[in-house]
Amino acid sequence: MSQWYKIDNTGKIFHAVSSSSNSAVYRVSATLYEMIDPEVLQEALDIVAIRFPTLMVRVRKGLFWDFLEANDDSLLVKEETDYPCAPIDRKENNAFLIRVLYFNKRISVEVFHSVTDGGGAQEFLKTLVYQYLYLMGKNIMTDGTILLPEDEVDQEESEDSFVRYVNHSEPAKSQDKDQKAYQLSGTELSPRGINLVQGIMDAGALNTFAKSQGTSLTGLLTSVLILTIYEERKKNSDAYISVAIPVNLRKVFPSKTMRNFFSVSNIGVQVKKDMTMDEIIEAVTRELIKKTEKSFLQRGINHFVSFQKNLLLRIVPVFIKYPIMRFAFNSVGENRKTLTLTNLGNVKVPDEMRPFIDWMDIVLYPTKKSPINCGAATINNKLTMTFARSIDENEFIKAFFKNLTRMTGLEVTVHSNGWGE
Amino acid sequence: MNRCSECEINTKQRACPLCHQLLSTTDLPKEERAYPAYDQKRFKVKDRLAKFAVFGGILATIICLLVNIIVMPRFLWVFYVAVAVFYLLVSLNHTILSPSHLGGKIIAQVVSLTFLLLVIDAMTGSLQWSVDYVMPLIILAGIVLICMLIIKVRMKWTGYISFLLMMIGLGYLPLILYFTGVSHVLWPAVSAASLGTVSFILMLLIANESFMTQLMRRFHL
Q1: pLDDT tens for each residue of A40-51
Q2: Are A207 and A149 in the same domain?
Q3: Please, what is the average pLDDT of chain A?
Q4: Is A63 a residue whose pLDDT tops 80?
Q5: Nearest residue of B to residue A198 by CA position?
Q6: ipTM for the complex?
Q7: Would B162 disulfide with which of A61, A239, A275, B19, CB 3.0-4.6 Å?
Q8: CATH number for the domain including A121?
Q9: Do A126 and A74 share a structural domain?
Q10: Which residues of B touch A397 (CB under 8 A)?
């Protein structure tokens, strides 16, 4: 009998709220220096798939909760033809909730968020790229920074780490109630889809600049986003601008889980007319430190688990529960942020793999209430900042790069997928 | 590398990715492109088809409502049109265009077709033939169809279990309607409920352990 998994705490929310305008599908990619050979990539995928059983699943309907079941079909690599992060068509993808795409020199992994988070997808991509390079005849010595295809699957990789780290003696609810944030809006792209704009810059220089400003790289990017949104806002008044930042809980609560294990911290600043960039950076850094502290994250874990353990919520059938969850997500959760910035950080791969990888990126799907989202990833001293938008208006993105280059003096190389243009 | 002085960025693309200003006359070689040239027309057609169907359905209903009020205000036949439009929209958007599971499409057809016929029956003044015969027989047909699919797909039968359970649950609805006095003919109601029960027992007998495991997964809290 095939293996099955309960959908984890955060995965349940993504499963309930996903729709045609909120695909809940994100992408992590690695762009190599050579053209991708699809046959070798398929061979690599066939080997790697066995190493990641929690990702090779399909969703099944349940009465109280849907669940994930091992999918024995083959996951096939496909050439990229559609816009990034499009909803996964179960028929075309053998019902897998993950797809592997290639285009020219890039290998992309797109994942439905109920299956795993950016941390899990990143591990899968790293192992896939390693195996691909190995099959292409590259001799790579590993150093423990990636999971190897021949390694035994650790039981811990399939655990729901929220349950492991819940602390029932501490308060379940977050003490800070985030206020309603300024929302971006615009005209939906025609045809509906996602436009990407990616800017590649010197990660080391950007990091040095951030440190000189007394903040981290994430703090700097968040501050520039907030300043730019404020400058580009439609109404000429003060605004509470909030950037939602997913936090990888594995860094604070050691875990090998390949399933969702992250929390979201809303970094908000009440921006006023005479506020300087330095003041924004200071406010953002203060918030970032506070909201990534272990005690704050612990409260978030407790909150998530108490939500899942709620008996009333558990005994309500999914066809009633999901619309309620969707309503709550759209009317409460989505109103608390202006956009999301996810930062994969400096991706760790074996040193011998580095010469084959040009750059990496992460694409976060936009939603109706958050029509522009962004993701950052760094490798080989190249930081890729990706904006994914579902609306026509791109003035904010244009202004962001202008602000960043003027502020830091760095050169940015930009490209776009041209969707909707 | 091209430079856009307006946006203050560099790009390999022919036009600036931000302001679309032409920066070079030579196209980027295909193998240097970061993203494919999309067939956006295909997406536009799909988008428009779905929007046109909804718009056309609403427009047809409004026109019929106006004609109905002007020509025959005492008999609101527009409800026949409205419910038929609803059924056609469900059929187009879910049954035909959506990538949903076949089992889900059968359930959607059973529910929307039953709703269509209930409204048509109710329009004549009372619920009779729809609850007496049509509803139980449509549900019965739904159970038969899903059972046939389970036999056909064999190894992949577990994919249809949730839908079969839903249909079995629905199979008891006509019986409830009979005992609450809404419907008046017993045999179709008994047939639907019996077929549901028989399917359930057969599944238990044929795939005992696997079926029980599937039930446990589907009812997990």
Answers
A1: 999 999 999 999
A2: no
A3: 91
A4: yes
A5: B17
A6: 0.87
A7: A61
A8: 3.30.559.10
A9: yes
A10: 18
